[in-house]
Amino acid sequence: MFFDSDLLMSALRALTPILLAALGGALCERAGVFNIGLEGMMLMGCFTSVATSWFTGSAWLGVLAAALAAAAYSLILAVGAVTLRGDAVVLGIAMNLLAVGLTSFLLRTVFGVQGTFDDPSLAGLPLVGGFTPLAYLAFVAVAVAALMLSRHVWGLRLRGVGEAPDAAATLGVSPAKYKYAAVLISGVLCGLAGAQLALGNVTLFSENMTAGRGWIAVVAVMLGRAAPVGVLLAALLFGLAEAAGFRLQGVGLPQQATDAAPYVVTLVALFLSTARRRRRTANSPSGATT
Amino acid sequence: MTRPPVDPTVELRGITKRFPGTLANDAVDLTVHRGEIHALMGENGAGKSTLMSILYGMERADAGSIRIDGREVTFGDPSAAMAAGLGMVHQSFKLFDSLTVAENVVYAAEPRRFGLLDRAAARRRVRELAEEHGLAVDPDARVGDLPVGLRQRVEILKLLHRGARTLILDEPTAVLTPAEADALFAVLKSLAAQGRTVILVTHKLREVLEGSDKVTVLRDGRVVARLVTADTSADEIAAAMTGRAVDLDRVHAPGTPGDAVLEVTSLTTDAVHDVGLTVHAGEIVGIAGVAGNGQSELVEALAGLRPVTAGQVTLKGRDITHVSATERRAQGLAYVPEDRHAVGTAPAASVADNLAMGHHRTSLSAKGLLPPATVRTHAGRLIERFGIKAATPEVPASALSGGNLQKLLIGRELAHEAPLLLVEQPTRGVDIGAIQNIHDQIVAYRDAGHAVLLVSAELSEIRGLADRVLVMYEGRVTATYTKDEADEQALGLAMAGGAVAPTEAVD
Ligand SMILES: Nc1ncnc2c1ncn2[C@@H]1O[C@H](COP(=O)(O)OP(=O)(O)O)[C@@H](O)[C@H]1O
Ligand SMILES: [Mg+2]
Question: Hey, are the CB atoms on B117 and A151 less than 8 Å from each other?
């Protein structure tokens, strides 16, 4: 059997980091900040969690430190795009590049190794029913985010800020405050995503170990229309693709081909969703006037 | 109607505001009493918006003081002004399109239950306010789907929800149809009757005369007149605004029509059904109608921007029904589109380049090149001839005021000396002074023997300029009048769909 409960389990494991990061991206999107720095923030989380776990012996302290470090790192985007009104795309790309360089450098100076650091005594996250607690937390976060966005006053204001910051400002709501909050929360979530990747999915740090998952999270935000449940479904699709890729290796396909599975799915999904959107705008009767 | 004297609710004293190079407000005093509709008038750039921004805490005055209900206040931001009972509807609406009416109304002042937004209470609140003030609107509708008239209601509901006792409306009717504007004034009058105060910023005379109690006129940042509406006239207000006497309802002498230039038979396209009309040389044909009755589509079809489904269009006897816009221009058509920002001009390009557009193919081109010196001279000529106020011809078109941008556009098109001019809403949002200038130019163009097809939603403009008037209603020409027959009543009735029977345009 190709599709079985094992495949689903490994899909759910693959999904967790993408889902956490994409939730953060969705909040930013709703607040009107285009955040493509998820990859870099996640990678900072990976390194910080491994380093902290190694030196303190506690995986949980690793998780905490990862959340804080990635949140601090996300300030680059908050200050740059919100306060200084810089280009969020340029800032996001810079953050992603900087994170690769910075973590590789720290790997060498702190651990004295190149490429990969792993050690049998490095404390990883415990498993509960086959998953780390962070995996459960990710699903709770989906529910909380959905509730906050659609029913809570804070979510209403955040959505307003993202759509028409001027209008929010005239009503005494500070757009900058909400944008900062969204970016910082995305930092925390990406930190957790990184910890899940480095102390949950595996127990090691290797250079550029996020391998595009942050970018896939960006795509998940788009596919899911920045809605928590939509993002969950999109992340599930990518999780399945990654798990199926592993499985195909077992069938004998070369690893280089199977590793590409999530990215191929990303491309196909993007094509399909933009084609659908294009058709819809072409059909809308008021397309010319609004 | 006389009201018992009441204490002023808003008092501005000696408000002065200087921007680099401009004294926007020069020791302005404004006193508004409770329960009154107070019109603040002035041409573009007179300083109205600046004064209201200062009152509303969005700008800081360099000098002067503000008293609300007798107490001196200083507002650091709009929320402080709101807390003092002020509320403002901005000229460009400040709404969230993807949110519902109820969400927009309660935004940042939400009813809550356990920290969550209480949707039921928000809906109820909107219904109550709507009922109380005659502002019916569906609380669950998405604001982005609403027509402008209803969006404005949402803006007013927003202020009422916050308990605003003084409402400031900046150019509220600029985007409304006449019927929507009438509905707005009915609401404002009932608000004033309940003891709320309304400050109305506008430059439309008719509605000020019909809808306000008092008028304060600004010119160049200074108060030049304080009038009681009942004792004043349109001419007096217009003279105060412009600083000279203006004849508002000037009806230009009729032209002497020659040969047919544009002939349209049974034209059908989106929103236009079976329209026939003829425009002769030396004649202005006016198309009246409430916006959205097919006028724009008709003009676009004539300009070659919209495919024709049936019927025929000839220009000077030549069939141009399926000819491209470029080719039509080459055959003798000039076009002033309704939207001067998005369609008529390139906002980021310089005034000189904007004036050269279209002429680049003909008079300005030297062996396919555009010599900068030629472009400059051409710009200089038009700037002088049409009185366009631009710091230099090199400033971007976006730096011009609405009236000057419109003069630029009309000047550029008239300079083609094309046999046929299509002109749409030539004076929308333009000052009285500039309106006169533009009208004179169009009449002079006709008197030089050109044909003009004029589309306007302003009745006074149609009556003042057109030699013949067609009324469009729901995509059809439902009535045709000569200049003498076209009185306000007949046109108004026909525009509302009350024409007796569809008549063919007579040649
Ligand atoms: N932020 C600003 N910076 C510089 N000049 C300004 C600014 N706002 C308005 N002005 C100038 O102040 C004058 C008054 O403008 P405004 O109050 O907008 O007039 P109105 O609303 O009556 O059309 C104009 O000359 C305008 O160019
Ligand atoms: Mg203004």
Answer: yes
Query: What are the boundaries of each domain within chain B?
Result: 8-242, 250-332+418-507, 349-417
This prediction has a pTM of 0.78
Sheet architecture: strand order including B86-89: B86-89, B166-170, B197-202, B37-41, B214-219, B222-228
Between the CA of B43 and the centroid of ligand 2 the distance, in Å, is: 9
**pLDDT value for A126:** 96
CA distance A195 to A191: 6
Q: Which of B22, B41, B405 to mutate to test the pocket of ligand 1 (most atoms within 8 A of CB)?
A: B22
Structure tokens at B345: 């001009």
CB contact at 8 A, B198 and B172: no
Tokens of B123: 């809906």
Single out the residue of B162, B154, B155, B144 nearest to residue B96, CA to CA: B144
pLDDT computed for residue B71 by the predictor? 92
With a 6 Å cutoff on the Cβ, whether B19 touches ligand 1 is: yes
Closest in A151, A157, A168 to B116, CB measured: A151
Evaluate whether the domain defined by B8-242 bears CATH number 1.10.10.10. no
A160 to chain B: which residues are within 8 Å by CB? Answer: 96, 99, 107-108
Q: CB–CB of B107 and A168 under 8 A?
A: yes
User: Within its chain, how far is the Cα of B2 from the centroid?
Assistant: 32
Residues in chain A: 290
Where on the phi/psi map is residue A15: left (φ > 0), alpha (ψ -120 to 50), or beta? alpha
Q: Which of B77, B96, B110 sits opposite A167 (nearest CB)?
A: B96
Report CA(B23)–ligand 1 centroid distance (Å): 9
Instruction: Please give the residue of chain A at the shortest CA–CA distance from B92.
Output: A167
**CB B49 less than 6 A from any atom of ligand 1:** yes
Could you report the per-residue pLDDT of B6-63, keeping only the tens digit for each? 678 999 999 999 998 789 999 999 999 999 999 999 987 889 999 999 999 989 999 9
Percent of chain B with pLDDT strictly greater than 70: 97
Q: Do domains B8-242 and B250-332+418-507 have the same CATH topology?
A: yes
Average pLDDT, integer, range B275-290: 94
Quote the ligand 1 centre to B231 CA distance (angstroms).
30
Contact A98, A47 (CB under 8 A): no
CB contacts of B98 in chain A (<8 Å) are: 159, 163
Interchain contact, A151 vs B97, CB within 8 Å: no
CATH number of B250-332+418-507: 3.40.50.300
Residue B273 has a CB neighbour count (10 Å cut-off) of: 16
What is the DSSP code string of chain A?
--SSHHHHHHHHHHHHHHHHHHHHHHHHHHHT-----HHHHHHHHHHHHHHHHHHHS-HHHHHHHHHHHHHHHHHHHIIIIIIS---HHHHHHHHHHHHHHHHHHHIIIII--SSEE--TTS-----BTTB-HHHHHHHHHHHHHHHHHHHBHHHHHHHHHHH-HHHHHHTT--HHHHHHHHHHHHHHHHHHHHHHIIIII-S-EETTTTTTHHHHHHHHHHHTTT-HHHHHHHHHHHHHHHHHHHHHHHHT--HHHHHTHHHHHHHHHHHHHHHHHHHHHHH-TTTTT-
Q: How confident is the model at residue A281 (pLDDT cuts 50, 70, 90)?
A: low
Give the relative orientation of helices B432-447 and B234-242 as an angle to the nearest 10 degrees.
Answer: 100
